[in-house]
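Review session, final week

We close the course with one last complete record, chosen because it touches almost every idea we covered. It is Helix-turn-helix domain-containing protein, a protein from Halarcobacter mediterraneus with 110 residues. Go through it on your own first, then we will talk.
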Amino acid sequence: MEKEKLNNIADFTVIKHLPRVKFNLSNNDYCIASAIYTLSHNPDSKFDGWYYGKIETLGKKFNLGRSTSYNCVNKLISSGVVEKNEETNFLKTTKLWWDEFEFIKLVRNK
């Protein structure tokens, strides 16, 4: 892989497999959802609470192709863990993501 392309790959994603399996998400789906959660909580964001970049750009962080990235996002929306603003096409994780994937980290890690 080209060195420049490697510099654009995400370093790591912590995957909680219990909720991932519960919601029938692949590792790719999980990585995309986790990135949407993280990027939508950027305190310097122009659009607080939303991921406003391109889906294919997000997918490139995980070396995923355009169609794979869109399929992941569509599956996440269908699963109820991501929502899409139909006017802007911005994305964010839902309360379901928080309750099942994020909050569980806090409770189980005590």
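Two points worth writing down before the exam:
Residues 27-40 form the longest helix (14 residues).
The first strand starts at residue 82 and ends at 84.
Good luck, everyone.
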